[in-house]
Fold this sequence. Notes:
The chain is 45% helix and 12% strand. It is built from 10 helices and 6 strands, in the order βαααααβαβαβαβαβα. α1 packs antiparallel against α4.
Amino acid sequence: MSHDLIVFDLDGTLVDSEPLANRVFHEKLAALGLDPAIDEARLAHDFTGLSLESCFRLAHERYGLALPPGFRDDLQAETFRRLERDLQPIPGAEALLSRLRGPRCVASSSESDKIAFSLRRTNLARFFSPGSLFSAQQVQHGKPAPDLFLFAAQTMGAAPEKCVVVEDSLPGATAGIRAGMQVFAFRPQPDTALDAPFKAMGCRLIRHLDELQTFV
């Protein structure tokens, strides 16, 4: 497959941060009175792939929670503590990145400091050049809008149709398709129902990062 740029999502694609971050988020919302029927799995389903601001909006609109002053700082501080202690790369990420040739970047819903921290903590930062890490903080609309991917492509000097996106979330995959890019949906656990929307959009499904070598 001919391409000029590979755009990687971060959380759940290169680093295994989502279970850690979702657990902390659930604990913090539970302390504010989150309905006990909403477990970590439900929270992950609702929040995965979204920016922090979008998650806060959902917590208020969908769960009816008023987030107090200081909630963001408290959440971020505890999330960073868990990441520092437990964060690991996704299996196959280091091997894949070490074999890839050509431009690549990260375009993530996470905030810039968390992107940089996560890559350093997992020893993956060395595979990305300065100026190739992009955050939803840098655009007006985060995923599932295409803004972040289009911004990353433009900054890296690549045409959208010549970009390959690697994503694990539905909002992220949707953003890639809307940007006019070829999307590989990283779905390590087969699930017919959950995989169906990715297939319907035209994504190529992969179960392990090693499979990308066949295409890129």
